[in-house]
Write a structure and sequence with these properties.
Elements (H helix, E strand, L loop, with lengths): L29 H4 L7 H5 L21 H9 L6 H5 L6 E6 L5 E6 L43 H8 L12 H6 L15 E5 L5 E5 L24 E2 L4 H8 L6 H26 L6 H5 L21 E2 L8 H9 L5 E7 H5 L3 H5 L3 E2 L26 E6 L3 H14 L6 E5 L4 H5 L10 H14 L5 E8 L7 H10 L2 H7 L4 E10 L10 H29 L10 E5 L5 H11 L3 E4 L1 H5 L3 H7 L7 H19 L3 H18 L27 H6 L4 H12 L22
Bound molecules: flavin mononucleotide (FMN).
Length: 716
């Protein structure tokens, strides 16, 4: 059982730095060590108020309500429904566009059909044929006279769009950084990178400074399109590939062969299984009749997870590219894409392929302490941070999506199968957490994915079980490590390189703490299984050593409620997981990774926190563009981010440590106005914060937080 005394533990090693090399002051217990702004001697000597579970212990001087009222709030049921937030409900983009018949039609992107964000496009569309060219040198417009977009740049600048923004001093952040702007004339800072030149014949021409910034118009337009300027986005899959996928023109030979074999094998196994029930002597029948799969899995690149590699969780909507880039900058060593659905990937759908993009900072190797535990064959220089996650409900989708991903994505650490998503839409289809109750199917998925993924390792993310009264993770972990008893003898292990366990069931909501003692039990089990798997390896090594990942080691990560370096190292040292995956903690305080790296609490000032908001805005524009669409796409995801970021209670205001992720603060005032503003639960304040960097939200812009955050949320 894991120690609960997180604060009293001696200082842990920060990222593999031996204790002896750390600052002496770090040996103090965290509570003593921390210097908190505003914590006067007097305040620290007062008799502390009793700690109430679920309520952040804000110092009295910051509370905005009388103590009696605070007590009332303390009793209130504060429910933050993060299960809803976890859902695959990428916000819907509504983009008005002119159709060929001249009528305006709505184009929908993303998955969410419940939340609308209004429209945010220019009043009049500028044709692509002139969007990046000098005024007098338009490209050929393939629609000719039928094109109803504007071709007159002056008219567009005057009437077709909003006036330039004045944020960032009116200077285009992309142009400032790259000397070109991928949004061309549509950029909402275009005045900072355009010029009017006078020709000898007296005519004046509008030109973009930095030249024609888009090489091939039509490629990768819209959010995510960055033209020919390298803004550090990788894994951009050409439109032609998506098109071919949508027309079923991409041959997936490996998958086809494997699936053909699999269907025969399933038949065989079924017969064996039913016979075995009545006849003990037939129990070896499966291995006797078993036919080898058409090919063996290729040798995999080895992965590594350790105490120096804190992991950012896959986070639908929240875990977008700009956010991950921020986290990597703050010390995240491993990142995951948002969950993509297998079938839309196979159908070449743009929204799901867009989720597979990464920032170049995610393609660098994670930290690795060579003097730590030896990992056979691990080559850190070939490793990278970014992995993708998919959901699938049947083996053929999982297998084919895996083959497609490993073929078309050049930057891929691993492919993770989601076996934990609790959301109805996913669960009822038989994917996500439904797989926890279909272990045989899940095993076949992992085997198949491993068979077709070439060098890319396959991993799984699971929960403790579906229902609160039945934890199934232990059985499943055994199966993922070794395979079912029948299959392991003939097929070897399924080849799962790592398992992440979120210490909750599907049924459980986020209000109850993650069960780290169960995670610790599973970690002990994995350790045993790894030893067993090595024995198994000896027996099958000659025939099929590729089935075993990492030379026989399946990594095990714990996940749930990690909110500081203290939690992080406590779980590594006491639950004995290889690493800890961090979800909400990273959205609420992205500098949790910096805390882990430095091994200390960081009391970030409001202005420092605002720099993270600014970075998000900049990274958003770099990923999605600085035109009307890109800016408001950025705004939407910034607001999603702020819906969690605003939950941070500055530790300098707390009477006790450690802070707990599930604690909610009573109403309080920050140490300055900005700190108060950043803590606002009113989404209109979040819009105001977005406007500091992205300018005024357009008139049609709407934002609904994904979940009702709590009972004392301000009305909009
Ligand atoms: C907003 C949100 C989105 C999530 N999206 C995913 C997802 O796409 N795939 C997944 O496996 N888990 C997803 N999760 C679950 C997290 O990865 C993680 O397992 C869970 O939040 C528990 O970790 P935490 O307590 O550190 O937040 C999501 C959770 C949240 C709050």
């Amino acid at each position: 059982m894991e120690s609960q005394e997180t604060v009293k533990r001696p200082q842990e090693e920060a990222n593999g730095v031996p204790k002896a090399h750390q600052d002496d002051s770090n040996h103090e217990p965290a509570l003593k060590r921390m210097k908190l702004d505003g914590m006067s001697e007097d305040a620290s000597q007062k008799t502390p108020r009793a700690r109430v579970k679920g309520i952040a212990p804000i110092k009295e001087e910051y509370l905005t309500l009388a103590p009696g009222q605070v007590a009332k709030l303390g009793e209130a049921e504060v429910v933050v429904d993060d299960d809803d937030a976890e859902g695959r409900t990428a916000p819907e983009t509504t983009q008005e566009s002119s159709a060929k018949d001249g009528k305006r039609k709505k184009q929908k992107g993303g998955q969410n059909k419940e939340r609308a964000f209004g429209t945010f496009s220019d009043a009049q569309r500028l044709c692509n044929s002139v969007a990046w060219t000098p005024e007098f040198s338009p490209r050929h417009c393939k629609f000719g006279d039928r094109c109803n977009a504007l071709h007159d740049i002056r008219k567009y600048l005057k009437d077709g769009r909003r006036a330039d923004l004045t944020t960032f001093g009116g200077k285009c952040p992309l142009f400032e950084k790259y000397g070109k702007c991928p949004s061309g004339w549509r950029c909402l800072f275009v005045a900072s990178h355009m010029d009017e030149i006078k020709h000898d014949d007296g005519r004046t021409e509008l030109v973009l400074v930095g030249g024609d910034s888009k090489a091939a118009a039509g490629e990768e337009d819209g959010p995510g399109g960055a033209g020919d300027i390298n803004t550090g986005v990788v894994n951009m899959v050409p439109i032609a590939v998506k098109h071919d996928l949508s027309r079923k023109r991409v041959a997936l030979d490996k998958s086809d062969k494997y699936l053909d074999w699999l269907s025969k094998d399933i038949d065989l196994y079924r017969k064996h299984y039913h016979r075995q029930k009545d006849d003990e002597d037939e129990s070896k029948d499966y291995s006797a009749q078993y036919v080898e799969p058409p090919f063996k899995p290729s040798e995999k690149r080895r992965v590594y997870f350790g105490r120096e590699t804190p992991v950012l969780a896959p986070l639908t909507t929240q875990g977008n590219l700009p956010f991950r880039r921020l986290c990597v900058e703050l010390g995240a060593q491993v990142t995951y894409s948002e969950m993509a659905l297998g079938l839309p990937l196979l159908q070449g759908q743009k929204a799901d392929w867009t989720l597979m993009r990464a920032h170049e900072s995610e393609t660098t190797p994670p930290l690795f302490n060579p003097s730590g535990p030896v990992v056979q064959g691990y080559d850190n220089s070939k490793d990278l941070k970014f992995g993708v996650q998919i959901a699938a409900n049947v083996p053929w989708i999982a297998v084919k999506a895996t083959e497609t991903l490993s073929r078309f994505l050049p930057h891929l650490r691993l492919i993770d199968l989601n076996c934990g998503c609790p959301v109805d839409m996913v669960y009822k289809s038989g994917a996500g957490s439904a797989l926890l109750d279909s272990q045989s199917k899940l095993e076949r998925m992992i085997r198949g994915m491993n068979a077709v993924s070439e060098e890319v390792p396959i991993t799984a993310k699971i929960r403790m079980g579906v229902r609160d009264d039945k934890f199934t993770a232990q059985k499943l972990i055994e199966r993922l490590a070794l395979g079912s008893e029948d299959m392991r003898g003939v097929l070897g292990a399924p080849g799962c390189a790592a398992v992440t366990l979120h210490g909750r069931t599907r049924q459980q909501r986020y209000t109850r703490d993650a069960d780290w003692s169960y995670i610790a039990e599973c970690a002990a089990l994995v350790k045993n299984l790894n030893e067993k798997s090595n024995d198994l390896a000896d027996t099958i090594r000659e025939t099929d050593e590729n089935t075993l990942p990492n030379g026989g080691k399946m990594y095990f990560l714990g996940n749930g409620d990690c909110y500081s370096h203290v939690d992080y190292f406590n779980h590594i040292d006491n639950a004995k997981v290889d690493s800890v995956m961090i979800g909400r903690g990273a959205i609420i305080k992205p500098w949790i990774f910096e805390e882990i790296e430095k091994g200390q609490y960081l009391d970030k000032s409001a202005s420092e926190r605002l720099t993270y908001v600014e970075k998000f805005a900049r990274y958003g524009m770099e990923a999605w563009g600085s035109d009307e669409l890109g800016i408001n796409y950025t705004r939407r995801f910034l607001l999603e981010f702020l819906s969690f970021f605003s939950r941070y209670t500055p530790i300098g205001l707390l009477e006790y440590l450690p802070p707990a992720i599930n604690d909610r603060p009573p109403a309080y005032n920050g140490r300055d106005d900005l700190e108060t503003l950043l803590a606002s639960k009113n989404y209109q304040d979040w819009i105001k914060i977005s406007e500091m960097f992205l300018g005024p939200a357009p008139p049609g812009f709407k934002f609904q937080p994904k979940h009702k955050s709590n009972s004392y949320e301000a009305e909009g």
